[in-house]
Amino acid sequence: MTTAEIKKNAEAKMARSIESFKTELQKIRTGRAHPGILDHVQVEYYGSMVPISQVANVSLLDSRTISVQPWEKPMGAKIEKAIRESDLGLNPSSQGDLIRVPMPALTEERRKDLTKVVRNAGEDARIAVRNVRRDANELVKKLVKDKLATEDDERRSQDEVQKLTDRTIAEIDKLVQGKEAEILAV
After folding, report:
1. What is the C-alpha to C-alpha distance for residues 25 and 18, in angstroms, rounded to an integer?
2. Which of 30, 98, 117, 158 has a CA that sits 20 to 30 A from residue 87's CA?
């Protein structure tokens, strides 16, 4: 393995960390509705647990209401129950074969709690990126120790990995600020 391969590997892992963080941010409920909120809610479908999006059409009615249209009529009650029992604190209502999921307005206290959750998730993402940096630097040191790379290569590689880490952490910080602004917007 060369220093270029190590850098490329670290870059890929950092990109995956950011994607994971973005997915985590989507799960955090703001006052606004978006279909991604229901992505991790599972419903029983012929004996196995599947995401709601695989048994129903999930879309927006307006900025504060999600509509869920089951593809099969008997799934309506199961989907409604799954949403109600999820950790999202939502209260769906059934209107014929359409399930409406209104998003309740967030209280000031809840908004502050959610910003703390966002900051903690951001810190976890930063830690993951720093761990990738540490692993990459250790691999380069091992190459130098095994005399497969020079100390100049080691220094250059560490600088490149540090710049990559700084860019990735700046992107995470930007995502955290954006989500906080979204949560605090009334």
Report:
1. 10
2. 98
